[in-house]
Design goal:
This protein is mainly α and 87 residues long. The protein contains two helices and no strands.
Length: 87
Amino acid sequence: MPKSQVRKKKVYTPPTDVRPTATAATRKPSPVWLPILAVALIVFGIGWLVVYYLSEQAYPVAAWGYWNLAVGFGAMVASLAVLSRWR
C-alpha cells in the first residue's frame, strides 16, 4: 500500500492583540543585596524567637511580652515579601 503524503503545517503566529509585551523579557535581574537581606531577616527573626523562648520571656525586650513573637514572625514574613521581588 502506498504511503500517503505528509502535509506541512503552517507555523502558528498569535494575533498581535494577544501577544505578550516585551517588558517581561527586558526585566533586569535582582540586585545582589536582595537575597542577602532576605536571609538576614530570616536569621534575625529566628534568632529573636530563640532568645525569647530560651530566656523564659525575659529578653530581648521583657516589657513587650508576647509582642516579641510578632517581631520575630514579622521579620520572617518581611523576608517573604522581599523574596517575592527576587528574579
